[in-house]
# Entry
Amino acid sequence: MSTDPSQTSNRTFVQPVVNEFSITVGTENGSGSQTSNVTLLRAFFKMGIPISGKNLFPSNIQGLPTWYTIRVNKDGYIARSETTEIVIAMNPKTFARDLALVEPGGVFFYADDVKQPINRDDITVYPMPVKKLSKESDAPSNLRSYVANFVYVGVLAQMLDIDADKIYQALDFHFKGKQKPIDLNFNIVKSAMVWAAENLEKTDPYRVVPMDATSGHIMTSGNTAGALGSIYGGVQFTGWYPITPATGVAEAISQYSPKLRKDPETGKHTFAVVQAEDELAAVGMAIGAGWGGLRSMTSTSGPGISLMTEYVSLAYFAEIPVVIWNVQRMGPSTGLPTRTSQGDINLSYFLGQGDTKHVVLLPGSANECFRFGWEAFDLAEQFQTPVLVLSDLDLGMNQWMTPPFEYPDKPIDRGKVLWEDDLDKLEDWGRYLDIDGDSIPYRTVPGNRHPKSGYFTRGTGHDDYANYSEEPDQWEKNMDRLNRKFELARAAIPDAEITSVEGAKVGLIAFGSTDPAIREAQDHMRADGFEVDYLRLRALPVNDTVREFIRTHERVYVIEMNRDGQLHQILTVEVPDCAMSLISIPHNDGLPMTAAWIENAILNKERN
Amino acid sequence: MATKSPNVNLVNLSKADYRGAPTTLCQGCGHNSITSQLITACYELSLTPEDIVKFSGIGCSSKAPTYFLDRAFGFNGLHGRMPSLATGTMFADTTLTGIGMSGDGDSASIGMGQFKHVMRRNLPLVYIIANNGVYGLTKGQFSATAEEGLALKGQGQNQYMPIDIVWEAVISNATFVARSFAGDPKQVRELLKAALNHRGIAVLDIISPCVTFNNQDDSHHSYAWGREHEVALHDLSYVPVAEEIMVDYEDGEAKEVTMHDGSRIMLRKVDNDYDPTDRSSILCMLEDANRRQELLTGLIYIDTNQESLFDLYNLPDEPLNRLTPDRIRPSRESLDEINALMF
# Structure
């Protein structure tokens, strides 16, 4: 295999810009460009260069414009960049808009069959014979439009110095070693490289050079990571209903479980997955399974969460463990279903009618999606309550470079479950009887054959022995116990992570997928002489770490991707003595947050 | 076999061991009659209460699980969403026998979606619908099974066509569909016994009069109307595996259906030639009965060959909920392989 199709190189560099730029690819949805884009992403990663890739796609299967951005950054900043130095224009419908995106001094690659005016002289422009090369390729005519996307991979490889070997490895991975599609696509990459070497004179400064900054990392999506974490957490039942952007969670569970959760002795599966008829049923099944003593979960997004509300309320009140992944998307109902948001934090935290509040885990990386995947089950079973995991479209669906998954560092904790032998030893047992004085009762599960094991679970008022009761004292006593259980959870949930610097008087609080942007902004501001500490919240409710952080800073900016500053609202209520020092900086336009926006927003507030 | 006292069954339990809390439903409510037959059926079949798990939705019908099998686990879930709850729980231990108690409001309105989907999944569950054509707990509104033209106090006249639960069950691929009448306790009991031994979804649409809101003689869900219009398809009796068939049937007089465990349902013809394994004839028969204003009861459809939900899963023999932690967490080595795949 020749991976260097051309020895020809005719290059006149201005000051080179190495491993520090963003690429935006404009294509049509459904044209197959995702494969090319992920191939590019993986090739950079394999070259050891830190990257992030974000698919900014419409709610559509075919035809609407879609963009993919890749940020290449030697310093390891992987948040979305607001600027794009390199644009690849494949879609005539967005040609003018894509052209306008290019930063001054940047580069514009375009499919040369698109005949539209190019009226900029502050950028470098390279045509690409996309139609010609795909027609000349050995691709059958029905696949030509797909392989056409590999023309820009080849041209870019030649012009940026991307290692063709790494492109091959990326294709090999993507097509799982199937030689035919690998060759088909790699051949067109090679021919595009040859064409570019012979026909384009490099006049732009952008290029890549291999580094060693990605070793010890893996590439994965938050949804895959969360699914795998759940599998290692021993998930036994998954009830789900398709919804963007959460579908990938359940699909990955279905994909990986048959191998990972096949009993080595019997060859039987230690799990079950059911695609339900709707979210009402998905959560009903999951709660039924949780009640039955299975590690049980569902995954959905905001609209599905709304439908699950009634059952989650019942599960909270009846004390049934279940894990619910909310991979957030933008807005109510359909909203912007393919855009990211952190708009469900209030909904998730207080989900339900009556007095309800829940443990909510807030993963900030794909790696942490794995960790919270298993940890959520321990918490749900330990506290016998629903636990929500709040991810989002950006974290869930995009590919991230992230540290490798770590094997759970705690044994599985099934909480207080009694079987036949245990009941024999207990003199007095009631489903809601607080035997240990820690507000967490013991539970039995169906299938326990002890004559004392059975009880009746209901949404109606009940006494310590699960008997029907409408006694006012009984009701209040039970609700108070549920509250004490919740208070107890504060100390058991994942602690916040603080990145502090000497002498900072200002703090930042954020959670979830904004983490890379916050860290980048923190570094930028430090470089400008403005030191800030950063607390990344990893779970709700807040604990002493969070209270202490707020109390020890003059001002704390709460940064989040929603309109109303929902986390700011929660913190104001939970740390009321410091409410005045909390300043809300919410922002949500559907795109992942950038460091530039954060820095700008903070500095604006600081100046006022 | 150990000698048993006449007041206990094969598992040495008395009928009292199958009872529940005293009913809080109205006196004469059809649901109490169903509950009582369920207790008798479980007792006569010598089922162990701990082997049974009860589910219900919301409504008068769904309160009923409190009134039977005290020793069994039970979950009174959400309105119309008993089927999903049962589906999840039954995965935990597939050796359990599930009984779902629902009503016409619970299953034919708010729960129609879950009702139909649990049919197509063929979840092993006895799905009882105590059907009275009216919302009792909210004091007498029309339900979706109320006949067109029914007049109820304070509600005026029902303008809409009714939903036929049996019909809906059959077209959703249910594998055991029966209709009965709370005023015909023997048939209810025998159908329950057969249903409890069916490996798949067993729907029992039991006309169960609401004595408070919908028991006027001309109402299609009243005792009087039921008694007057009931046409039993057959005289039905359930014969457990261990028992001999005691009655002598003449050739061609009875049809026998063998259940998956070898037990049998004997259907003695009354006045027609009905074959409950022939799906294609059901809709015509129901349509004819409707036209004749007959309350057709009995085992309307049965398919003992269709795989149950759990046959579709490669589950261990041991219940999932008894698997120890080491059997549900993959090995440390396997995670190295997973990490190597993540690129």
Summary: Chain B has eleven helices and 15 strands. Chain B has one domain: 15-312. The first helix of chain B runs from residue 30 to 44.
